[in-house]
UniProtKB/TrEMBL annotation:
Residues 1-29 are annotated as: Disordered. SUPFAM superfamilies: POZ domain. InterPro entries: SKP1/BTB/POZ_sf, T1-type_BTB. It comes from Skeletonema marinoi. GO terms for biological process: protein homooligomerization. This is Potassium channel tetramerisation-type BTB domain-containing protein.
Length: 314
């Protein structure tokens, strides 16, 4: 049998190494997976479609040589196919989503235990922002004056005073808590509006903003206080600037500025300022302002009583 020359062996080895290098990997690569004993094939771009997720990092191509594989060389994922497949099918559906078809909805399960396991797996892979998305949407103001960015840098730049809501898309997990980092803002109110009581009015002209309209409440960063349906309460010492971190917890139960509680509906706390019945309603985060700000973290209501999920948008 004729042996290959050292030069040919070296060339073959070089080609193989080059094909395994991250720069050689392509989004169109077909990856063969063994998911809990079931073989399947997925495009690399499907597995890496949620930027910043652990799943995207794992299958970016950089770690292909070190990932677990079965004896046939298939990438091994130690998860049940009944949980992993719905996540992949959702990502595939999102990839071909169009305005002319019904929107893609997050996977649902009749079995509570299976749902609990799915939520845990999604969180483990860092996929919550992709599988249970949240989006900013303009509700007041002129569309041409604002720019909205989505995950992973959820935020707003608006040259005119406008109002935006932060809402879920394709699933029923309400937003429990959220955090905002201020950019260059001239005026901003960060608050909550009652669901089904806040109608869009996208048109030119003045509007009163969150906290002034009926069924709305906010932390007024410009005036340094609270606004509840037009009624203002001054908060002594409240001041904000570029880079200030503002957090709303448990649907407005507590408000923190740079980690310090400034307002609360909990009577036992020193900062008791808010109506204690606020949380009984279905509430949606809302922002009125001129300038720029970023929603840096969103915490969703648990689907099951012992689990909550945080989504980072940093």
């Amino acid at each position: 049998m004729k042996r290959s020359s050292p030069e040919n062996e070296e060339a073959a080895s070089s080609t193989e190494k080059r094909q395994r290098s991250p720069s050689f990997q392509q989004p169109s690569d077909v990856l063969h997976l063994n998911v809990g004993g079931t073989l399947t094939a997925v495009l690399r771009r499907t597995l890496t479609s949620i930027e910043g997720s652990m799943l995207a990092s794992r299958f970016s191509g950089r770690w292909d040589d070190s990932l677990e594989k079965d004896r046939d060389g298939n990438f091994f994922i130690d998860q049940p196919i009944g949980l992993f497949q719905p996540m992949i099918d959702y990502l595939r559906a999102k990839a071909c989503e169009t305005m002319l078809a019904p929107p893609v909805t997050s996977p649902e399960f009749d079995d509570v235990r299976k749902l609990k396991d799915f939520v845990r797996m999604v969180e483990y892979f860092g996929m919550t922002a992709g599988i249970y998305p949240t989006e900013l949407e303009m509700c007041r103001g002129e569309i041409s004056a604002s720019k909205i960015s989505g995950h992973p840098h959820l935020g707003v730049i608006s040259s005119e005073y406008a109002t935006f809501t932060l809402e879920t898309r394709g699933h029923k997990r309400p937003i429990r808590s959220f955090s905002v980092i201020l950019g260059d803002v001239e005026k901003i109110e960060i608050g909550l509006v009652r669901a089904n009581h806040f109608v869009k009015k996208l048109r030119k002209g003045d509007h009163r903003g969150v906290g002034m309209e009926r069924y709305t409440f906010c932390l007024d960063c410009s005036q340094g206080g609270l606004l509840y349906e037009g009624s203002f309460t001054k908060l002594d010492g409240l001041s904000t600037e570029k880079g200030t971190l503002i957090r709303c917890e448990n649907k407005g139960e507590r408000w923190l500025v740079n980690g310090q509680v400034v307002a609360s509906s909990i009577a036992l706390e020193d900062s008791f300022h808010l109506p204690p019945d606020l949380q009984q309603y279905s509430l949606i985060p809302a922002f009125s302002g001129k300038g720029s700000w970023q929603v840096c973290e969103v915490e969703l209501d648990p689907m099951i009583s012992d689990h909550k999920t945080s989504i980072s948008h940093l």
